[in-house]
Amino acid sequence: MAHRKPHLPEKTCASCHRPFAWRKKWARDWEQVKYCSDRCRGAGKRPSI
Question: Is residue 5 part of a domain?
Fold first, then answer.
């Protein structure tokens, strides 16, 4: 049986606009996290054409 964690806080990614949940590796700086992944973080820094 899968263990779900519905009580974790969520944010919306600044790049893809999808919701993402809190991860333990973000515990120290959750307030500064803006992107759901490295791919979205890279896309946020590139100028769009």
Answer: no
**pLDDT (0 to 100) of residue 32:** 96
Q: Is 16 exposed, middle or buried (0-12, 13-18, 19+ CB in 10 A)?
A: middle
Look at residue 2 and tell me if it is in a domain. Answer: no
Q: Pick the closest to residue 29 from 11, 6, 7, 3 (CA basis).
A: 11
Residue 49 maps to a domain? no
**In a structure prediction context, what are the per-residue pLDDT tens digits for the chain, which is 49 residues long?**
567 767 899 999 999 999 999 999 999 999 999 999 999 999 867 665 6
The DSSP bridge partners found for residue 12 are: 19
Give the domain range for residue 28.
Answer: 10-43
